[in-house]
Specification:
The protein has 13 helices and eleven strands. By secondary structure, it is an alpha/beta fold. The protein has two domains: about 70 residues, no CATH class; about 200 residues, Type I PLP-dependent aspartate aminotransferase-like (Major domain) (Aspartate Aminotransferase, domain 2), CATH 3.40.640.10. α3 crosses α4 and α7 crosses α12. The longest helix has 20 residues.
Length: about 325
């Protein structure tokens, strides 16, 4: 086929507005913008197919393709499925299923306006943390708390607030990658903190932490390996010993628990997971964990711990919160 013949075939394709008019009587649903989008997509694909040497579609075929494309772009991509993966939670298949009471509460608030950031007692602008902080602190046994989008975001915020431009000591065996390709070294880099790796992949000793501490050390970070395990000749430093070391040098210990359980799973025959309460009780200055997964809530990153450190995190997360709290 010559270039002249090819151009002649392409010129015979209808313009977008012509195709819109052509299918007007066939469209059962969809906004005018959606119809134009579907027509434009079909015509672009048709031009590409002709340029590849394929036969042009008939007018009826183009109409059918537009209706199929219109149905695709106007139908929600979210679908209910049965989770038969053999695990309690598979985050690619959605987060924890909320109980009816929670669904009802979300529906009730989402269907209208609310006091999201309004203090009814003072009649002034408040802050959304007031709806969750007291509950989280009661569960965790902590002094203060705030929320982020997910645990990776929570860890990023903590490092940004407490260690930007300074060193964070972390065991080499805890530099893990979790779901969604979130890597601890990448999160550390993005926060502006300087990663100081210590120990070996399978064993890290207390002396490794002690020898790494210097004038530029901001945080001692412990990262729960989640579903990653090393067996055999292994060893890591208990959180209590890290806290003692941190107190000796005036350095806070941040415990990234990942999924973050609030109950001892061994009571139900499951492998034991460190709980948020146990980390707080052991003296961790800040503990980060997921709001979904083991706690069974919506996706969130929970940051809880000592009030002075949580306040520093709030100051960079939401500067207006600091102003509001200082005015109370």
């Amino acid at each position: 086929m010559t270039d002249i013949e090819l151009n002649e075939i392409l010129r015979k394709l209808p313009a977008v507005h012509e195709l819109v008019e052509q299918i007007a009587g066939e469209v059962q649903s969809g906004t005018p913008a959606a119809v134009r989008m579907a027509c434009r997509s079909v015509l672009e694909n048709e031009r590409a197919a002709i340029l590849e040497g394929k036969e042009p579609q008939t007018s009826e075929n183009l109409t059918e393709k537009v209706l199929i494309e219109l149905d695709r772009i106007t139908t929600s991509s979210m679908k209910n499925v049965i989770n038969a993966t053999g695990v309690i939670l598979h985050t690619a298949l959605g987060r924890a299923c909320l109980p009816e009471s929670a669904v009802e509460a979300v529906s009730r608030i989402a269907s209208g306006y609310s006091v999201l950031q309004w203090d009814c007692e003072t009649g002034r602008r408040g802050h959304r943390d007031i709806h969750t902080e007291e509950i989280i602190c009661e569960l965790a046994g902590s002094e203060a708390a705030t929320l982020a989008n997910n645990n990776a975001g929570a860890t990023l915020l903590v490092l940004s607030a407490l260690a930007s431009g300074r060193e964070v000591i972390v065991s080499r065996g805890q530099l893990v990658e979790i779901g969604g390709s979130f890597r601890i070294p990448d999160v550390m880099k993005q926060s502006g903190a300087i990663m100081h790796e210590i120990g070996c992949t399978n064993r890290t000793h207390l002396r490794d932490y002690r020898e790494a501490i210097n004038d530029n050390t901001a945080i001692i970070l412990r990262v729960h390996p989640s579903n990653y395990r090393i067996s055999g000749f292994t060893g890591e430093v208990p959180l209590e010993q890290l806290v003692e070391l941190g107190e000796e040098f005036g350095i806070p210990v941040v415990d990234d628990l990942g999924a973050g359980s609030y109950i001892d799973l061994s009571n139900f025959g499951f492998p034991s997971e460190p709980t948020v309460q146990s980390s707080i009780k052991a003296g961790a200055a800040v503990v980060t964990s997921s709001g979904d997964k083991l706690i069974g809530g919506p996706q969130a990153g929970i940051i809880t711990g000592r009030k002075d450190y949580i306040q520093q995190i709030k100051n960079i997360l939401l500067p207006e919160l600091s102003e509001w709290e200082n005015s109370q």
